[in-house]
Amino acid sequence: VLFNFVLAxxxxxxxxxxxxxxxxxxxxxxxxxxxxxxxxxxxFIICFTLVFAKYRANRNQQMIAYTIVxxxxxxxxxxxxxxxxxxxxLQWMPIGILLVPVVLYFCNYQAGPRWxxxxxxxxxxxxxxxxxxxxxxxxxR
Length: 141
Description:
71% helix
């Protein structure tokens, strides 16, 4: 996923920080999308990043554009046009992808309490990964 984020950062740089001709920008974005197809999330992260950047000033437009892009990408994965994670269309991941506008709607961009936010997840992530590994080790033995 981190490599996808690096490509998304490059895409933002191409779109917003370069003075190249628009055709060259489009070709560079297509090249970045091509490289991202060989990574965990495929073209999803670059597309979502560009949508959030384009509509960052208007949350309603952001939610609408994200919903349209995510539904389009999920349809393309389902049809086999775009490569995606195998679990993307078979399990619960599409529900998570489509719930983002709900989270955006209720987000007020105010910092929450320090312990319930950042520090909770610093502990939660390694602990839950350890518990999953322990469960797999005991259960699959």
